[in-house]
Amino acid sequence: MSQVITITNEDILQQVKLSYKIPEIIEQIVNRQIITTAANEAGITVETEELQETANKFRFMNKLLGADETWKWLNKHSLSLDDFEEIVHYTVLSGKLTAHLFADKVEPYFYEHQLDYASAVIYEMVVDDEDLATELFYAITEEEMSFYEVAQQYIQDVELRRKGGYRGIVQRQEMKPEISAAVFAATPPQMLKPILTSKGVHLILVEEIIQPKLDEKVRLEIISSLFAEWLNREFEKVEIVSKLELNNKID
């Protein structure tokens, strides 16, 4: 006979405590209240059409294609239909507050930090020995070996080796300063001289430099970053009074 285990609200709270999740949950609660209060003060309202559109997107993203799948998902997460509607409402409210606060600040921010959004298509490998890196650099530039051939011999990571060291499109802000300076000074396609960092000696082939462009992806990245910074500042202003009961006993 299988064992029956009953889970109570107290069990859930205790597990949250034992998983060190209390600070994270408190932060989420406070952020939720900050956003709701700010939206109300700004006079932001949510329309029925916006709720329906967001609910449809939510169901699609979570593969809730029918009523049965939706109810199963709600039961799995111990959510009522009212809870689901609250999630959707908060999602719309948060998005509209973000746009209200920062939609007109995205372009100025982008042009002020334009260089940070430049990117490059690169191939890369890292070796431990500087003399070896120099030897491989000349072997590649003098066409004794291709970058791919060198990568097959010296890259330890299996997946990266299979791709011949191809890193794809890498943003400037993802690179170490000493690497980004060399990469964005290159005239592609160009093999860079070995670059020494704390990780080792980098051999990098720059295939293409991609100039920054304010597309929808970058726009979303910027506005999300601005909103997160604002929320962090607002969070720091809040005095949090926690009334959680602790089981600490001192004999």
UniProtKB/TrEMBL annotation:
Q: What PROSITE patterns does the annotation carry?
A: PPIC_PPIASE_2
Q: Per its UniProt entry, what is the enzyme's top EC class, as one word? A: isomerase
Its recorded reaction(s) are: [protein]-peptidylproline (omega=180) = [protein]-peptidylproline (omega=0)
Which InterPro entries does this entry report, sorted A to Z?
PPIase_dom_sf (IPR046357), PPIase_PpiC (IPR000297), PrsA_foldase (IPR050245), Trigger_fact/SurA_dom_sf (IPR027304)
Catalytic activity, EC: 5.2.1.8
Could you list this entry's UniProt keywords, alphabetically sorted: Isomerase, Rotamase, Signal
* Domain PpiC: start-end pairs: 117-208
GO molecular function term, any single one: peptidyl-prolyl cis-trans isomerase activity
Q: Does the keyword Nuclease apply?
A: no
Under which name does UniProt file this protein? peptidylprolyl isomerase
Taxonomic source organism: [Phormidium ambiguum] IAM M-71
Supply the source organism's classification. Bacteria, Bacillati, Cyanobacteriota, Cyanophyceae, Oscillatoriophycideae
